[in-house]
Amino acid sequence: GAPGTGKSLLAFQLACGMAKNGHAGAVYELEMAGVAVWRRYVSSISKIPTHEILSGIGMNDKWNEFSKAIEVAEKLPIYLSEETNWTTVKMRADLARLKQKYDIQWFIVDYMGLLADSYGSDDTERQQHISHQLRAITKDLNLASMTLQSVTKAGYSRPTMANVSGPTAIHHDADQRAILSKDEDL
User: What CA–CA distance (Å, rounded) separates 111 from 146?
Assistant: First the structure.
């Protein structure tokens, strides 16, 4: 999806839904600060707008809801990393460790283009390599996975699968694909 369509928030809400149902997992948040992701999730649980949580304005009668939402979020079996230097090799080792120690069943990468793998002669080859590696990790460790990817500038106004950034290998490596776009009628 294009910037501002809520890819990270949707992925994290799906992660929290899986975790609430007893399915532990890992989120590799390469794009946003982890605290921002958790703030958005606490906001969605508590129904308190994020700008109120950030500013404190209007929070006098909402601290109870805020505290309850944090308690719910803290209990979820989600292992969040906001490091920015992940490669697929390091991620494979980390996921194997988390699977052995916590029996994780899924992982999310936000977003694929920010992984630090250096491979090939250009960015297309690098992203193709990353896509293949993520697919192999998913298969080899028997994990479900979700990888977020942006669209090209052409896809901002009319997102289609043809406008997904990166090589066509991304389409072939994915079992399912979805595109988020802004609803101009809202």
Answer: 10
CB 102 within 8 A of CB 141: no
- Residue 144: φ, ψ to 5°: -85, 150
CA distance 70 to 62: 13
Nearest-angstrom CA–CA distance, 6 and 148: 11
Tens of pLDDT along the chain (186 residues) come to 656 667 787 888 889 899 999 999 999 999 888 888 888 888 888 889 988 998 888 888 999 999 999 998 889 999 999 898 999 999 999 999 999 999 999 999 988 889 999 988 888 888 889 989 999 999 999 999 998 877 554 545 565 555 555 555 555 566 555 556 666 654
Q: For 120, left (φ over 0), alpha (ψ -120 to 50), or beta?
A: left
Tell me, letter by letter, the H, E, C secondary structure of 9-78: HHHHHHHHHHHHCCCCEEEEECCCCHHHHHHHHHHHHHCCCHHHHHHCCCCCCCHHHHHHHHHHHHCCCE
Confidence (pTM): 0.81
What is each CA distance from 58 to 9, 10, 35, 64, 180, in whole angstroms?
A: 23, 26, 21, 13, 32
Q: In 3D, which of 140, 111, 102 has the Cα closest to residue 25?
A: 102
